[in-house]
Specification:
Blueprint lengths: L2 H68 L21 E6 L17 H4 L16 E6 L3 E6 L7 E6 L13 E8 L2 E7 L5 E6 L4 E5 L13 E3 L12 E2 L12 E7 L6 E2 L4 E2 L2 E6 L8 E5 L8 E5 L2 E2 L2 E2 L5 E3 L5 E7 L2 E8 L17 E3 L21 E4 L2 E8 L2 E8 L9 E6 L7 E2 L2 E5 L8 E2 L16 E2 L3 E2 L4 E5 L5 E4 L8 E19 L6 E6 L2 E10 L8 E24 L7 E5 L1 E6 L7 E4 L6 E4 L12 E8 L5 E7 L6 E7 L2 E7 L5 E7 L6 E8 L2 E6 L8 E2 L10 E4 L8 E2 L3 E8 L5 H11 L21 E4 L6 E5 L2 E6 L2 E6 L7 E4 L2 E4 L1
Parallel strand pairs: 43-51
Antiparallel strand pairs: 1-2, 2-3, 3-4, 5-6, 6-7, 7-8, 8-9, 9-10, 11-14, 12-13, 14-15, 15-16, 17-18, 19-20, 20-21, 21-22, 23-24, 24-25, 25-26, 26-27, 28-52, 29-39, 30-33, 31-32, 32-37, 33-37, 34-35, 34-36, 34-37, 37-38, 38-41, 39-40, 41-50, 42-47, 42-52, 43-44, 43-50, 44-45, 45-46, 47-48, ...
């Protein structure tokens, strides 16, 4: 080919290539135009989406407001996004949301080299997915720990750890797991008693496991701290442990509970490249030494264990049953002896060295029977089953049981002075609302809507004959009932006297010349309130509180071994219970009406007051405050004017106080009959429920309505109150004006002055109870103790479980209730709820 031909061919090729380029450019230009158009469309769609999102948010807020206003009883009926139903019996459950790990769960995507990622799938101990779930549900059974994949709506099994003497999660023969939790790719499992008891810690990132025990010795790995010989894929291969040293020892190998958190500024674990989680281990068994909490990898550093021991004595030690971390690294632990003498300790910061043994640690805020008391009465506080909780915003939830009654104590802490914090008791059929500091009365806070009278509920209490009574060897004399029997047990009883969970004044005359006499509220020893041995005679009177499953029987019975004696003048009257710490009561004078505070609501209001129909608390030293601080709070629905809500007076020498409504405002009177000094504290409108608060602080009176309080107090006068005064609700005997013609509810008296923030908080929390269909009582543990608690940090909802089901609370208001019994545990996270 000549040069000219080559040039012509090259020119043709260039022209062809140029044409192709032009064609491709045209195509590209069209694509660019299409892309620009698509971009414009996407931007428009984005704007529309943002607008729709904002509208949806507005609709959501409006719907929420409407739901709140309507107080819908079904507002939270379907809380669980995922329902877990598995044929297992759990002793503990834990929801592990890896998005709350330090790296947001990113560690899950760098485990492809681990043994467990590569192990065979679809086996009896491994599910169908390799990757660790974003949300995992950890279920602890007696001898097995199962992890379920909550990313899948079917919640399939993801991995199983079998308990075995030489497995990575070890378990001695005949013993059991107790608890589990997880954080930053680390799983901690506690177990109790015997060889191999203690705490096992498994790292999914490091693909390894280790055991914390009470000894550290090369020849004693059964009870000691050691490392598992295999990896996680070999978790059930019984490879055993090996002593490696420097793991650390826990205070006791009986582990009752375990909790984990990541402290601010925590050191990075080189094995995981994540901040090392701090593990708190609740250990011990009552009557044995070594109870308390062991802090693993805490502020003392990685590889350290610091102990917070409970009190030890010659009779044995106190155990720690549960432990919990707060949102800012606070620690909540308890100390109890067989569930009794319980104390709760809140550590704002964790110690870096071992503390001396104690149940009330000086560096912690301690709660129990001290102010604010977690439980009524003067007997030792008794810890109920279930987990105490931090709920954020300085609030705690602590299950309690006093004698036969269970309740939940909610604590709103005052961290500067814990004695000035607040506590609310929620029971099966009552809710006290917030009690400030040293509470002396919390009454009119129940759900029983039947009317009250002062009539004697006993038929034929003077025994003209035996009508109304079921009797064996007892004989009516016309004025008494007598018995002369050698039988070990003989009784006389009357059914239908008592209602469950109510308060009664009981009085009777007795004489016992041989043997012993006892009296019970309920058959089968349900609640004994009187017990005496011969020789004895006199009149017994006192407050009797029935239990939730009382069968209503009043019984007089022998103590065993025969009896000679008599009983007469038997009186039983229903009274208004004080549900607060002092367990006082209010007598019913005449007749009082009770009705829901709003249509469909739980809480009832008291009304029908007059000069012959009112409530009265006999003199009690608990209300003798002299010139000290005092606080009276409550809710009223006013109707008339110049009327008394409550008074504390002595008709003989005066020197008391009266709170009422006069000329449309909340009014306090102090002095003789309430006539000597008057103070006004804001408008008290008619036609709806209003919250009032009147208190004296350092000699100055303050007050307000619906959460408001004037910043400047009024110097008090004529208010060094007399000893011997009685408290009356709904009527005052000496001032001009009349009895309260409206309704009254949730009356509380305290000797602690509240802060303005506390007053506002009380009003904000309690006003929800006065809306239509508002529920406030738990209604889920009428026959036994409260079983479990869970707080969902994402929704702020609190779940309470018992034999009657699960109650869900938003603040003081119950917003949902399920009837499936709760036996051992509840877990809640981002609307996922798991219970056993």
């Amino acid at each position: 080919m000549t040069v000219e031909q080559q040039v012509d061919a090259l020119t043709a090729s260039v022209d062809k290539l140029k044409g192709a380029v032009v064609s491709k450019k045209a195509t590209l230009d069209a694509s660019v135009a299409d892309a620009q158009s698509a971009t414009a469309q996407a931007q428009a769609a984005k704007a529309n989406a943002l607008s729709a999102r904002d509208q949806a948010g507005a609709f959501k807020d409006a719907a929420y407001s409407a739901a709140q206003s309507a107080a819908s009883a079904v507002a939270y009926q379907d809380l669980s996004a995922i329902a877990l139903t598995k044929a297992v019996t759990a002793v503990d459950v834990f929801i592990y949301d890896t998005s709350k790990d330090s790296d947001g769960g990113a560690w899950r995507h760098r485990c492809a080299g681990t043994s467990w990622y590569r192990e065979p799938l679809n086996t009896a101990t491994r599910g169908a997915r390799r990757e660790f779930p974003a949300v995992a549900i950890i279920v602890v059974e007696v001898g097995v720990v199962r992890i379920y994949d909550a990313d899948d709506p079917a919640i399939p099994m993801w991995m199983v750890f079998e308990g075995g003497y030489n497995n990575i999660v070890a378990l001695g023969s005949g013993y059991f797991f107790t608890s589990a939790c997880a954080k930053n790719g680390v799983l901690a499992v506690g177990h109790a008693d015997g060889a191999r008891a203690g705490l096992d810690v498994v790292s999914f990132i490091a693909d390894a496991g280790k055991h914390y025990g009470t000894t550290e010795h090369p020849l004693n790995v059964a009870y000691g701290s050691s490392a598992y010989k295999g990896n996680i894929a070999q978790r059930n291969a019984a490879l055993g442990n090996v002593y490696v040293g420097n793991i650390g020892l826990i205070a006791n190998n009986t582990v009752n509970d375990v909790a984990m958190t990541v402290l601010p500024g925590a050191a990075v674990d080189p094995a995981t490249r994540l901040p090392a989680p701090t593990i708190a281990v609740a250990v011990g068994r009552y009557g044995l030494p070594g109870g308390g909490v062991s802090i693993i990898d805490g502020p003392a550093g990685i590889g350290t264990v610091v102990d917070i021991p409970t009190h030890q004595s010659a009779a044995g030690g106190y155990e720690c049953k549960t432990v919990e971390f707060g949102p800012h690294g606070e620690l909540l632990m308890n100390a109890a002896y067989n569930g009794s003498n319980a104390t709760e300790n809140v550590f704002e910061t964790l110690p870096i060295t071992d503390l001396p043994e104690n149940n009330i640690h000086p560096t912690a805020r301690s709660y129990g029977l001290t102010t604010p008391a977690l439980t009524p009465g003067t007997s030792a506080a008794v810890l109920s089953a279930g987990e105490e909780l931090f709920m954020g915003d300085g609030r705690l939830a602590i299950p309690q049981r006093a004698m036969y009654w269970s309740h939940l104590a909610l604590v709103h802490e005052n961290k500067a002075d814990k004695t000035k914090g607040m506590v609310a008791y929620i029971g099966h059929d009552f809710n006290t609302g917030w009690q400030v500091g040293d509470s002396r009365l919390a009454a009119l806070c129940g759900t029983d809507g039947t009317d009250l009278t002062q009539e004697n509920l006993v038929t034929n209490g003077t025994f003209a004959d035996l009508s109304g009574w079921n009797t064996g060897d007892w004989v009516a004399t016309g004025s008494a009932v007598t018995v002369d029997s050698a039988l070990a047990y003989t009784s006389i009883s009357q059914l239908g006297v008592f209602k469950p969970n109510a308060a009664y004044f009981v009085s009777f005359d007795y004489e016992v010349t041989a043997g012993g006499l006892a009296s019970r509220a309920g058959s089968g020893g349900q609640f004994g309130f009187f017990d005496v041995n011969a020789p004895a005679a006199g009149t017994w009177s006192g407050l009797v509180r029935t239990i939730y499953n009382s069968d209503g029987m009043l019984m007089f019975t022998t103590k065993g071994g025969g009896i000679t004696g008599s009983v007469t003048n038997v009186i039983v009257r229903e009274v208004v219970a004080d549900q607060g710490p002092k367990l006082q009561h209010l007598d019913v004078k005449g007749a009082i009406a009770r009705a829901p505070v709003a249509a469909g609501s739980d809480l009832v209001g008291y009304s029908g007051f007059s000069s012959i129909n009112y409530l009265e608390q006999p003199y009690t030293a608990h209300l003798d405050v002299g010139s000290g601080d005092l606080c009276i709070t409550g809710w009223v629905n006013p109707v008339g004017d110049n009327q008394a809500i409550a008074s504390y007076e002595n008709a003989t020498d005066g020197h008391g106080w009266t709170i009422g409504r006069s000329t449309g405002v909340l009014r306090l009177y102090t002095g003789r009959g309430g006539q000597n000094k008057a103070y006004s504290f804001g408008t008290l409108a008619t036609g709806n429920w209003q919250f009032f608060c009147v208190f004296r602080k350092a000699g100055y009176w303050f007050g307000g309505v619906n959460g408001a309080v004037a910043p400047d107090g009024i110097i008090g006068a004529l208010d060094s109150f007399a000893t011997g005064n009685v408290l009356r609700i709904g009527w005052q005997s000496l001032i001009s004006g009349g009895a309260w013609s409206g309704a009254i509810s949730m009356v509380r008296v305290s000797t602690t002055a509240p802060t303005a923030d506390q007053i506002r908080s009380i009003y904000d929390d309690e006003k929800a109870l006065f809306q239509e269909n508002a529920a406030c009582a738990a209604g889920v543990f009428e026959k036994s103790a409260l079983k479990a608690l869970a707080h969902d940090p994402d929704t702020g909802l609190l779940h309470i479980g018992g034999n009657g089901g699960r109650a869900t609370y938003k603040g003081l208001r119950r917003v949902a209730k399920s009837t499936a019994p709760v036996a051992t545990s509840i877990a809640a996270q981002n609307e996922v709820i798991v219970q056993q």
